[in-house]
Structure formats: C-alpha cells, structure tokens
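Support reply, case 0932

Customer input (verbatim):
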Amino acid sequence: MNIAIISGASSGLGASFVRAIIELRKNAGQKDLLSKLSELWFIARNKEKLESLQKEILDSQSVQNPLKCKIFALNLADLSSFETLENALKSQNAQISLLISNAGVARYGKFVDSSLQDMLDIINVNIIASSALTKICLPFIAQGSKIIEVSSVASFAPNVNLLVYSASKAYLSAFSLGLNEELKAQGIGVCALCPGLMQTGMTPDLGQTREDARKLPELDSQKVAINTIKAALKGKTLYTPSLFYKLYAILARILPRALIIKLAKM
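Our regenerated output:
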C-alpha cells in the first residue's frame, strides 16, 4: 500500500498540501509517484478538523481511482504518538511514497519576555517532533520517494522577535539538506520548503496581523503547496516561493550578518 503522510494537516498549509495532492493526481502519468498513491494519512491534534477535511477529500474525488483517507488525531509533542504511528505503519504494511512534515509552532515576541513553556513548545514540535516523524517513517520509505520538510524564510537569519522559531527553522533547513545528501544513494529526495508570509493557523503567533507585517508579500498557501510538490518531484532540495523571498534568500547569503539580522527584524 503506497501512502502519503501529511502532518499538521488540519488547516493552513497542511490542508493545502492535501488538496494539492488531489489536484496534481488528476494529470499525473501512470508512472508518476502521485498516481501510485492509494491512501492519504492526515496527522494533527484537532480530530474534528481532520474529519472535516477527510469528508471534503472523499466527496471531491471521482469514482475512478479515489484515494482513501486515514486520520490520526495525535499531538506530535507527545512522543507516544510516534509509537501509535509506527504500529499503524507496520500493521498496514505501508510504503510511504510522500512524507510532508508540516507541523509547526511559533510564538512572537522577544526571547527575554517569553515563557519557558513557549520555548519548549517550539523546540519540541519544530525540532524534536519533525526529526522524530522523519526517523520513524524512514524504514517505510522506498527508493524514488520524496520527503518535504516545511521550514521558513525565517531560517535564513536570526529574527529577534522570533528567535527560537527562526533558530528551529534554521535547524530544519540544515537537517533537510544534510538528510538529502545522506539518502541520495538510496534514491530518496528531501526538499526543504522555505515560504514567507502566509495566512495559516500560525499567523497570529507569528505577529503577522501587525501593520508592518502586512507590507510583506502574502503567499497563497494552495499555490505554495502545488509548486512545492512539483519542485520536490523535480528533485529540488530547497524551494522558496516568490521572487521577493528568493531575493531575500540571496541577500541573506551575501550581506554582512549584522545587516541581514536588522533586515530580518519584523
């Protein structure tokens, strides 16, 4: 059984990834990775939202070659969730063709003003849970499969108002690029997605409702999801949507670090 797993799937970019898979399968060739899928597995904490998305996807598909949907209402900050997922993978004899690690947490504000719990939440989900999800899934990922790790443009430079978040995303980008090199010989590709401003479930936590943040180009999560999957299928290892954020990525590499940190400050 070939499956795709999407974490953080209940809303925002995660739900957009689910819809993007359905959309892209319509024109996929018989040998295409997406056409081989038989089931989608959704992971998120909110069971009601997962059930709503499941119904939407089941209702939207044609009778011919529809994808089944399986939901897992799990909190990935709880490490026991990975035992549940691993047992399901073993019992279903699953082969993962596409893994999208999208679950994430953000808190806006200065580090000195944040709580210890805020810091731990970000580290536990963005670093530990993201790495653990990939680790648990790897034995079930075969040659030709793709992994998408959702990072952020915040990974390109420290942000004093999103310090732990930007540091966690820097880890995730480095992890993705290194893992791609490690898995290259096995024919498994890893792509780090580094998007800019989007309206997602994390928007208030990122401080993106503020007036100055609204001046940044806002990306359409559905277009981002579609183009990211296309990029991963083409073998890209890092994908940053939109010319504006691509330019920022270039500047982050060539400008003095002190200057780029000032530019990153929101």
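We compared this against your earlier run and they match. Two observations from our side: The chain has a mean pLDDT of 90. The longest strand covers residues 141-150. Please reopen the case if you see a mismatch on your end.
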